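Same chain as my last thread, 239 residues:
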Amino acid sequence: MSNRFAILLFACAISLPPQSYAQPPHGDAKAEAAAVTAFINDLAADNGIYMSIRRIEFFSELAKGQQPFATVVTCSDSRVHTNMLSRAPEGQLFMIRNIGNQLATAEGSVEYGVHHLHSPVLMFVGHSRCGAISAVSGNYSKESEAIRRELDTINISSNLNNMDGVQANVHNQVSAAMIKFGEEIRKGELVVIGAVMDFADDMHSGAGKLHIINVNGESNRNKLGNVKALLSEKRLRRH
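reply #2:
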């Protein structure tokens, strides 16, 4: 396929609105089958475009192994994805998703990213209108045991509004990570970042803005405005 045609395909892809799938009525087998078929067909078409706009060398490099720059823990919410964080996440972001973007319920995966893949950044990303935060701020006793077990490890005050709870949870995750990976942080091998993806503009700085709210335990907004200065005494180095 010529580069010109690949570029044309890419231009067409980015000009189209993203697919939106309405869930069919519960129990309507015919409607459900049609919706699933359309979803699978669209996956195949989108994947074809994805393949066409990247050279074989791109995939050859990916096949050699991974050395991500950041281990990123986000909520499993379907509205928060890698395209919000990076234009080229393949090979750069070691992604982990769970209820409430937690360390406790994904400790093994996070440890793998830091200790085995040696990513110099560990990042926790909360988000606006988080269902997990709403749940722990109320009564979730009727949820299944598996869901309750994951919610139980989110420790925030019950009197917080959703965005304040989201931020409190992110700060808690950074604090927990700083205890677990304290040696790596002291050596300058790891920086722990807390962030919030605000697609609802609840922080009044623009819908879709990613807010950095914590770096290695520092949450002062004035200091966070100059991360380079904040980390001036730290040295990021790969193992």
